Amino acid sequence: MKHKTAALLMVLLYAFFALCGCTKQEEPEKDDMIVIGMSQVGAESDWRQADTASMKSVFTEANGYRLLFDDARQEQENQFVAIRRFIQQKVDYIVVMPITEDGWDAVLKEAKDAGIPVILVDRMVNVKDDSLITAHVGSDFYAEGKKATDWMKEKYSNAEQVNIIHIQGTKGSTPQLGRTAALDDAVKTNPKWKVIARMDGDFTEAKTYEVMKEYLSNRDSLPQIDVVYCENDNEAYGAIKALESFGYKCGKDGVSVISFDATYNALVYCQKGKIALTVECNPLLGPLVESVIKTIEEGKVPEKNRYVEETAFKPEDITEELLASRKY
Ligand code: GYE
Hints:
The protein has 328 residues and is α/β, with parallel strands linked by helices. The radius of gyration is 25 Å and the shape is elongated. Helix 2 links the parallel strand 1 and strand 2. The chain has 11 helices and 12 strands. It folds into 2 domains: 34-138 and 283-297, Rossmann fold; 141-281 and 314-325, 3-Layer(aba) Sandwich (Rossmann fold). The protein has a 6-stranded parallel β-sheet with strand order 2-1-3-4-5-11, with helices on both faces. Strands 7-6-8-9-10-12 form a 6-stranded mixed β-sheet, with helices on both faces. The site of beta-D-fucofuranose has 12 residues, from helix 2 and strand 9.
């Protein structure tokens, strides 16, 4: 009897707390959490995975954030869908790594009309109204490309002719546009440089391996290859694999493979001499995005554009200490 009364009391108490929404399960959302809707490009490269890891390590519940993360799988349309969902969910900030630059006016206007600040990471967008973007953090891709072409100028200063294969990244993306423009400009001012082939590697190893193998399958009728300018590390791995499978030597006295990002594996390739130059592109952008958000939370205006410091590595620059300390 006693037990029955106690059980009844428990049920009544539970019903009472459930009604006023005070039970443990029905705990209201902690409204001091900053909610971030993030639309990431995909997982196409080592760089991208390091970038995602950096974001996820900063925007944790322990740090006061609720992160709604969406992987667009390299499709811009998926980014639009995710952003519209974030707007409906009334997130506090929208963080976007835009795949390509064009086509953003409408969806970003919707975010602005909803009063949600948009922070761009890594890549940029091409919009008529600059006020659609609150801030951008990332790299100066033209400057990265120039580091590569400056190195080429020095390396081939006495060459009669320099034959270049150019493997591009995702067409219309900011890193592709910047790194391509730097090469194009350098080709214009170096009459001995010749782009003998230009292919789309979409920033992936698999695609580059495929297009390079196809190209090299006519090996006997091909001119000499001096440089393969790959717009990221993963493209360089695919290119090296294809070149070696056709008997080409990559490195000193062979083909100079250039890459961008300088992630850990590329540094190892470079140490072995297979990559002649790897230009750094820093993916650890989580802390910078957080500093933009903190600035806004303090009621201040963040810097509109923030570029990260970067360098470039040749085989002789790769020390064991560098490899041991590399975080991506
Ligand atoms: O270089 C490449 C990635 O946008 C900077 O995208 C980024 C580029 C990076 O897939 O590896």
